[in-house]
Every structure is written in C-alpha cells, then in structure tokens.
Write a structure and sequence with these properties.
- By secondary structure, the chain is an alpha+beta fold.
- The chain has a single domain (9-108), classed as RNA polymerase II/Efflux pump adaptor protein, barrel-sandwich hybrid domain (OB fold (Dihydrolipoamide Acetyltransferase, E2P)), CATH 2.40.50.
- The chain has helices at residues 31-37, 84-87, 91-94, 117-124; strands at residues 9-10, 15-19, 24-29, 40-44, 51-52, 57-63, 67-71, 76-81, 103-106.
- The strands form two sheets. The protein has a six-stranded antiparallel sheet with strand order 1-2-3-9-8-5.
- 38% of the residues are buried.
Length: 125
C-alpha cells in the first residue's frame, strides 16, 4: 500500500503539492508513482524562471523500467528546483515526500482543483 500523507494535495497524474508559502507550492511525485516506476536513474527538471502550465509536461523521470513524463500540477513560474536529484535521483524512491521533491512554483493563487488525500486514495486503489 502506498504512503499518501493527508497534509498534501494530489493530481491524477501522481504528483503531490504542498504550500510552501501563500504564493509558492512545492511539487514532487507520489510514493505510488515512484513504486510503479521502479529504480529511478535520471530526472529532468524544469528550469528556474521557466513558466509551467497546469496539466502540461514540465519534466521527465527515467527508471530502469521506463521513462515517464512529469506534469505540472499548477500554472506559474519555477523559482527553485531540487538540484540534489542530479547526483542522487534515487531520492525519488527513498524519500518522495521529503528530500525527493522536484520544484517550487510561484503561483498567483493556491489552486483549488487538486485532489485531497482521500480522493487520491480512490484513484490508486
């Protein structure tokens, strides 16, 4: 069974979101996603300053099994990325909700169309 923290919001594409501040959200991939991918060996992150659009591809995760696209959960501007994933992409496997975060995105408002943990559990069941 996948770990799905109640404090986060989720997308149907298996990304998670947390509010770092009233205008910045942190995103990553869920425990469910990393388990499905298997051993992650490479991550392509969006660039700082890049504009991203909700539900559009903003990066890529490569594992020993496959390559999977990362979809932005929100529209906004990338203000930080987790450079540690360049040297240690396996952090996505070992700590997807902590050290394995992907990017911080500045938004004009925190989106309301994201899934709750309970709604996300139904998708992964």
């Amino acid at each position: 069974m996948s770990l799905i923290p109640d404090s986060l919001k989720y997308t149907k594409e298996h990304e998670w979101v947390s509010a770092s501040s009233p205008t910045v959200i942190r995103m990553g991939i869920t425990d469910f996603a990393q388990a499905a991918l298997g051993d992650i060996v490479y991550v392509q992150l969006p660039k700082i300053g890049e504009s991203v659009t909700a539900d559009k591809v903003c990066g890529e995760v490569e594992s020993t099994k496959s390559v999977s696209e990362i979809f932005s959960p929100v529209s906004g501007r990338v203000v930080a990325v987790n450079d540690g994933l360049n040297q240690s992409p396996e952090l996505l496997n070992s700590d997807p909700y902590g050290a394995g975060w992907l990017a911080d995105i500045e938004v004009s408002q925190i989106p309301t169309a994201l899934l709750t943990a309970e709604q996300y559990r139904h998708i992964t069941a």
